[in-house]
User: Fold these one by one.
Assistant:
Number 1:
Amino acid sequence: MKRTFIANLIPGMVTGEDVYSYNNQLIVSKGTKLTDKIITRLEFYSVPSIRIMENDVQEPSISDPYSARIQASPEFLKFKETFDTTVVDFKDQINDIVEKGAPIDVSAMLDDTLELLQADGGSVNFFNMLHNMRAYDDLTYAHCLNVALICNVFAGWLHFSQEDTELATLCGLFHDIGKLCIPDSIIKKPDRLTNEEYDVIKTHTIEGYKLLQNQPVNDHIKNAALMHHERCDGSGYPFGLTGNRIDKFAKIVSIADVYDAMTAARVYRGPLCPFTVIDIFEKEGLQKYESEYILCFLKNVVLTYIGQRVRLTNGQEGDVVFINPQQFSRPMIKCGDTFVDLSKQKDIAIERLL
């Protein structure tokens, strides 16, 4: 058996251990054959890696015409160029903060991040552009940038003031800075993590807070680094906080953080269909996140896909024409002259975007 990071799992692999969440909830039993949805659930619970049985699973070739079309668009190419430059600059600035204790130039880093939103041409779904920004060796830096951008859009949906929207963006930008304090001997360990080593990985929240503690930044930014793995039902870490004890900006970052991780492209496919992600949030996450925030987020993400052409699991193709307010992951689809209400036809689901 070998330890494999979640980002490198492939459907068909078999788990070599029982997999638990950070509050000891069993997620997947030993001997389970992995599917795309199970791998996504592991991301939902922020599991970093698992042990798998040695087998001969082959990496399937990716065939995703929708993703390929996005990546070939002028809007995406402009966005990617700006994103690539911003990631390099962000990495240099963050490393100076971590390694040299350099002061944070909040205004400059915010301006660099917001420039990416101006690079968004508007005709390509903003979230789809983010989901296709995945070819990076330093995933922590790109992930932080993604989360910052999602937080910016999310704060707009929540009708935050400009000041609070910028603050939410910065909270996303610095939320995972503590991961850079975790030793490579643990992060890149090829064998199974011990309980003690897993506990060290979980300290990235505390380490992030320590890095920011004496920096001239807003306390909400420090709290977001510390609390973005807390959950409203008390199932999170590092302190198991509940409800109002969690900083409101940390609650926003926690949603953006998990959503970005779950929609990431894999070695065996392009970005995950957002309706699949929303379905997992609806089934397993509504108690874990601030209800006002999570419902606003899911509703508005889905609304960005009105008019989107999709393929259903029964082979039909059609356009998303109506969002079901009771179940965002199951909208109404117009297939030719007929309408398929997925909230009523439970045996059918959206398989992929077209």
Note: Residues 188 and 326 are 42 Å apart (CA to CA).
Number 2:
Amino acid sequence: MIDARPESGRLPPRRYAGVRRMSPELYQTQDDAETFEGLPEGMTHWDVFALLDRAATPMGFSRVEIDTLRVLFKFSQPQDWRPGSRPVVWPSNETLMIELGLSRTALKYRLRCVASKGLIAFRDSPTGKRFGHRDHQGALILTACFGIDLSPTARRLEECERASARHEMERGLRRELRRRRTIAVKAVRQALEAVWEFDLEVDTCPFEDGLAGLPEVSDPWTPLGVLSACVMAAEALRARAEAEVKAALDAASASSRLGQSVNRGVVHPEDLDPVGSPIGPDIQITTDLIIDKSNYRNAALRSERRPAGSPSPSPDPSRRGIADGVAGKGDGNSGRHGHGVDYISRSMALKLMPETMRAFMVEAGVEPRGASWVNLVEVAYWHLSDIGISESAWQQACAAMGRNGAAVAVFIIAAKRDEIRKPDRYLRSMAYRAEAGDLQLHRSAWGILRGGAAEHGHA
């Protein structure tokens, strides 16, 4: 018989199939699982997972590992974490592959990584399969449970709490250091602006070089030592710059040159803008403009103030034909105050409409010659923002002169766009005049169509 052993007398290492390859970390997790004595009073297993989730970044747990723990925790029950029991779960590989979206090889690697970080332990059965049983009260029968043991996570609660608190403290310290750096850098730039504004005798090169030499700290993982050194350098640079600029200003304040510069108004209000805008920040008005209506002869307002039982005044003869002649026509309320929309035909409204609106109508599949008033109103509505008219102004115009009248008013404003600075306010003014009975849209339309809008007055 031939001896196949080498000269050293030792057989080559063998690999046994079906046996888990252990490591020092896996042995440690098994020891931690054996010492499990239950969770603290009032804590559930989901509280444990929430603490692990918060401490994932400082503890070095990846998000995929935390997600794996979340899936495993779903198979556990509260009574499994009580003293005398062990949180052992036995989901099959197929179930975990579906839950985590992994292949079998990737799942095995993922579970081994989680176990190597001391979060789970393997409780293997003689056959290598995972299974378990519970009694009639739902408690685990530990002698008949084999799978993945989650109890090592409870051993790391205190470590996770300390890591989470330290991480939050470091984040707050980083925010404070970045805030101090930003304040110091802006103060140096303000000092340089003062030097250039008043033409002071100060050498700005050291300060500009100092700003350029500050290290970049935009990375959230910048070491605290580098960030702290950057803040100290920026604050020291700020102290030197402000000291030199203040000294130069004190020295130049008595000179006539600085006094004359200030008297000539070199310091403008917009120069005090903290962002340095040459025209100042824009202020957007979010409330409706209040229009003075004292000059409008509002018949409705006068009727409300008229004492009870007093006869109503007779209408102006010059306006009676307009108010009475169009009653009952149009879109329902167009003839209430006689604003003249019923004297405007659809063909006239189409002629008032700008070319862009006609092109929009054609693109929408509506032939302009066959367009109805409904189509015209829709076209006017969809072009309000292009003209500069708000939704509230449109609704006010519809209430005062009807939808047809509001559409004609929008066409008139679009035709006179170059002459109107505030289209939204202009439409509101037309609505107020319609309520007072002073609006005559047909005259404005006729003037525009004849090419003499400036000679025929305004709407």
Note: The longest strand covers residues 121-123.
Number 3:
Amino acid sequence: MRSLTIAACAASLLAAPALAQETPTEREAARDVLKKMGELETSLDVPGLVAKLTGPNPARDAVTGRAKELMEKELLALGDDITRNPEIGFVEKRSVAKLTDYLNAHGFEVTIGTPGLETAFVAKYKGNNGPPNLGVIVEYDALRGTERAFHGDQHSTQGPIGIAAAVAMAEYLAKSKAPGSVVVFGTPGEEMMPPNAKTEMHKAGVFNGMDILVRSHASSATTRPAPGFGTCCLNIDGVKYTFSGAPAHQMTSWNGRNALTAVIHLFNNIDAVRSNIRPEARIQGVITEGGAAPNVVPDRTVADFYIRYPDEVYLKQIREFTDNAARAAALATGTKVKIDHYGTARDGISVATLAEVGFAYMKKFGAIKVTPEPGKPQGYEETGSVSRHIPGLGFSAASSNFPNHTYEMEADALTEVGHSGFVIDALGMTALLFDFATRPDYRALVKREFEGIQALQNEYIAALEKPYQVPKVPEPR
């Protein structure tokens, strides 16, 4: 690796998992776990693996060359088309049609729709030949902007990137008659929940049998995660509170029960208990329904919350505080409340045997704005539900000069900086899948690391149960 000596790289891998443990309580609970994780990573010799896999290999270069050809001749244009025609989550029908038409034309059998998800799809190559099973996740939903839907996260070209790698690998496996299968998973609504598409697909068994899953995501820098368990944006519970009251004329409001007053009480109740909640918590809510007319007592209101904390164990206590705040608001106002725990995001697993190889390939293929040190451990997809059960990697070569979720990042998707980053992601993804498909020893090493970190994550969660004791409150005397 050019930017680090082998010794320095190994040291950075050992130190990096601590980045995911963001509170003193977590760091104390994780002390023994991180020591064991360091021993596991040392035993893998990841720097040696990177050097071995990324060296000269004409067969691999031919397959990445095919992916590059597909991108430059057809798939960048397809990405541009989807960028110019954005569709928000769960209604991405035009985008799905464009992507699946291309897959059909290149030998894939496509099924559109999975349980509960009309714009999800599964595309299996017709020439599949048993394991190893290579899965490619693609996304295509746009952000909800105040002005318009827009591809400020560049999901518009995630599909073409993944398809280039999938087609190139499928053609290679079929031509060489080598064992292996390629499946493309279209996952809608990454920017929205409910439902949480990947979690629902995982529960339905859509990803069953996959030995690896890969995806890409836009970034303003070329990065990779450290090995371990974590998430980009804290563990999340999505909760919706719906209050039901009774309507009346506002001049005789005592004849009704005000659901708007109840939802305001909910926010006030949460603010009142913040001093009893650990400061790293984030409780973020909006009122999505607040009544229809000022002269009618509102009989229905809805508040939507993301409740966040660095770990899933203490998050349970925070959610109990907010649920009780809603119940108290209803009791105080004579209304009723329905509590809908509609979605979760949890720590996922990242493995160095995939992340460091993928990172080396992105640099090999010319990635810019390279971040030398690994970032915090985090799963390769946002829910954690998939990435804590199936090993994988999210590729993120720099593809914009602007931050995510901006109109400027959308504009960059149509320019050289975007196109270059997209091609690099496709080439890196193809190269990694080639190595994984053709080297049983590499697959075994990935499996060993992944299962080792899985076991350590369970040990870590169990250790966190001890310090988060709920105080005993006696009955009043």
Note: The longest helix spans residues 58-84.
